Amino acid sequence: MTRRSLGIRGSTDAKRQVRSAGQQRGSRRMVVIEAPYGDAARARHATAEFLARHCPWADPDAVVLVVSELVTNAIRHAGGWWRLCVRAVQDRLVVEIVDTSPRPPQPRTPDFGGGGGLGWHMVERLAGLLEVDRRPDGKTVRATWVEPAGVGAA
What are the pLDDT digits (tens) for 78-98? Predict the structure, then answer.
């Protein structure tokens, strides 16, 4: 895995849906889930299914945990609305969570007594490359993993 970095750059809405699409902006496959509230379980399930079909080289436990943490953060800290986009682009797996808060994720000192603070630290350790694109109406948190050399097309 490559060194994780957090890039924060400056500069959607829809009802809840799941869709898959083929060739779209270089993507081999894509799944999108949008929700006005909760439903992190649906995001985890859709991500695991996508990985099994299109990115068998990716570590499903790590990717699903990153998705779960990012969706949970959107639910807790950004008012609840979020959109997940998971796509395979050439030799990369790209996961994006869009939410309505322009505040970037803030690492906190973990509270091992159940008070949180562990999620962003886990995301930083498990994701390949991390980026945050900020806009006045929200942000996109993007995690990218690169297929190891010699594995072949998924």
Answer: 887 899 999 999 899 999 999
Q: Looking at residue 59, which CATH number applies to its domain? A: 3.30.565.10
Can you give the residue range of the structural domain that contains 120?
6-146
Query: Directed axis angle between helix 60-77 and helix 40-54, to 10°?
Result: 150
User: Do 95 and 86 contact (CB within 8 A), yes or no?
Assistant: yes
Q: How many CA atoms lie within 13 A of 39 on its CB side?
A: 17
Burial (CB < 10 A; 0-12, 13-18, 19+), residue 15, is exposed
Count the domains in the chain.
1
Span 105-142, pLDDT tens digits:
887 777 777 667 778 888 999 998 999 999 999 999 99
